[in-house]
Amino acid sequence: MHEGPPSWRRYLRFWTDDATADVDEELRFHLDSRIAEFVAAGMSPDAARREALDRFGDVTRVAATCHTLSEQREMAMQRSEWMTALTQDLRYAVRQLLKAPALAIIATITIALGVGANSAIFSVVNAVLLRPLPYANSDRLMSLSERWPGGRDGNVSVGNFAEWRARSRSFEAISADAGTTFNLTGAGEPVRLYGARVTASFFKTGYMAPALGRYFNDDEDQQATRHVVVLSHPMWQSQLGGDPKVLGRELELSGEKYTVIGVAPREYSLTPEDEQLWVPIAFTPEQLAQHDEHGLSVFGVLKPGVTREMAAREMSVIERELHDRYPTTGTPTEVGVTALRDLLVTDYRAQLLVLLGAVGFVLLIACGNVANLLLARAASRQKEIAIRSALGAGRGRLVRQLLTESMTLAVVGGAVGVAVAQLGIRFLVTMSPPGVPRLGEARLSAEVLAFTAIVTVVCGLVFGLAPALRASRSDLQGTLKQGGKGSAMGSSRDRLRSVLVVAEMAVALVLLVGAGLLIRSALLLQQVKPGFDPSNVISFRM
Q1: Which has the higher per-residue pLDDT, 479 or 321?
Q2: Closest residue by Cα to residue 378 from 459, 482, 479, 503
Q3: CA 312 to CA 306: how far, in whole Å?
């Protein structure tokens, strides 16, 4: 059993609960009472104490059990009290907001637009920049390119690719992709499809389990057996109606028959282009001897423990040897090894982050607007707050009540903001330029909803805390006597509102200047002369 609490703790317990001290005091009382009984019966104090302890049992175990039960009871009581107080605060907050419906509606719409815009943009940022690539070993998936003087990365020749694949020891698998187009006929109206001729290792470098069937094997990457095709999920849905019996079906592509052996999963898009189907590339001996036609996109999966820098050094050594062996083919002397994730988002990272920052500023302006509304609302509630203070409500209790009201507004605005975000995502996906990688995966995922919840709570604190602190620090006597008019509190609140207005104007000016610069840059880009007269000039392919 614990020793008795110090004298200062005995006094402290009048203000704070101390379950351990209560249990110790209760056990000590019972033990002392039993000892007193034995002493009164004629036993010596030491013998009485031993007898009392023997009959009482294991005091330490009993004390520990009682401590646990007492703490559980205290926690249950605290939870109950907290929930009761929260329920009361919520009811009072709803009543106060219903008394000012115009303020509640305007604040809700303002918050919903700010939160919804941020959630919509974050969903795109999450899909394009943050979410890992869906392929196995995506952190080791690289894009390989021949690096020309000046740091420009280019495609790879067939002969050089064959040498890389045969001699490299840094990669588990290396594959090649050559984008091309196919005319699909015999399945309704003829359709022009963008696809690729790929090596059999293509689906090994960026592996995802097929939605149907299988991928190519090495035997099918030969001229005699190359007439097989793997379809993308969107092409399977749009051109073949998602037919589950599509495996084994023959398609006529550019006048040749191909047998469907598989369908890739919906998310499969290893290259920035939206390839709709893949057929074996099946290099001929003549193609494998070519080192001067650079047209392949090459991908590789690093072996465990091999870094990108190590692989780049090894590949550049091979490339320099090829440059010395075939000096007339224009082979460069360096190889670029870039993480596929970085390659896909290079052109969009800065744009998306700037856009996210811009809507973040818009949200700050929205918070400033709502904070001003709450300050104006607090000015009309000075007498109510003063009366509550006079009845015994402490400043902390008043701040908690006012914060509950602001958080109620934030939660309602955030809920409406989810609907705004859904509409915003659809708009962004529809109106964005083609080629943004994985943009179609933007949706209200668990990460986006968590982001929305965090933003909503932060907004509630940002626009609610300052007004709550100001309103709770009222001049009690002056307010009750004069209704708060002309008090120092009013001038203090006016200064805070002025600061908020200045901050909103500053942020709005930053946004305006940034938007103006972007528009001016876009206009100037349209006026750049290409070096020839582009009027009446068209481009077409046969």
Answers
A1: 321
A2: 479
A3: 10
